[in-house]
Design brief:
This protein has 4 helices and 16 strands. By secondary structure, it is mainly beta. It has a 16-stranded antiparallel sheet that branches. The chain is globular. The N terminus and C terminus are likely disordered. It comes from Hymenobacter setariae.
Length: about 375
Amino acid sequence: MSFYPTYLCTKKYFLPALLACAVQAHAQDVPRIFPAPAPTAIDTARGSADLTDKQQFANPSVLGMGPSKGIILHYERTTPFSVAASSQVAGVSDYNTDAKRNGKLIFKGYIPAWNRPHLKVIVGLNYDREEFKFREQPTNYGLFDNIENKGLKSTGVQLAVIRPVDAVHWYLARVKGELSGDYTSSTDIGNTNYFRGSLEAFYGWKRSPRFSWGVGFQYGYTFGRLSLYPAIIYNRTFNDRWGIEALFPARVSARYNASERSLFYAGYTVDGFNYIVALRQELPLGPGKQPLRSLELRETEVKFRLRWERELLSFLWLGAEGGYRYNHAFDAFDRTNTDRERIVRTKLGGAPYISLEIFAVPPRKLLEKAGVRR
């Protein structure tokens, strides 16, 4: 999946056990603007004891961005939609049905492993689960029954590094490894076939406290299959209300700062998933080919979205999102034989979706006590 959370561009994150040391590192003289910047989106390291007042370090964040996220709990669900599976090989039938719903539960947590003005290292953990509920249960169609009974899961760990060079230039890199598929037992978890890896890196320029951009690449599954493609980070706050946050081509969002405690976003995201799905019965493919015991499921979707983020408590925010999901691909491939041919092409109908999210941020009182104002 694509990656550019604002926590990378900040100096501290919400973890109760680390707040004591976080407060000291945040003690800086940040000018108050409207709308207020992200609570930890600090553009210089003037407050650090080992630096002079003239030394500054750039990062990808800009004033006006939303609060950095430390712990995230997210649930998403669609309305019913059509499902049409078309066989691409002999021995597999076509199948049409409806999905009553498609739901996703996502948990993420981020831990600052190293935090210095000139180097920040973040460790991230995630657990995602996607479930389908079809109209007929069971469907008597092997791929769909496997998906419905087991669900599709991703459990991962990632390491992100931001390296400010000076007051203008910065580097950003991230590497991630995860298990992705319908694994259910300790035996499955130890199966390397479920392992997926991704990598991205950027070099950027901080033109002002309100404008930062960078160029680089992403190597991962944003478009369903493992691929390498160029990417651009573009974060800019135009005035006291409007801004844009983009990791093109994966996502672009316009931002409207209604107040210190309320932000609105509008834009699109491209999400890609790559799962290994085990088959209950071997699937023969004919002479010269090994029978299949598993399939590689490649999913790509585009979401056109409206999002609202609101502060509930000084350390807790709510995110509510709605929009329309367009499914570009949901296809199963042979991962056993060298030709990697497509076995089933599936078209999922477009559908409206909604999501709710609760996320924790650095507490307001502790930041204000340290001299950092939102």
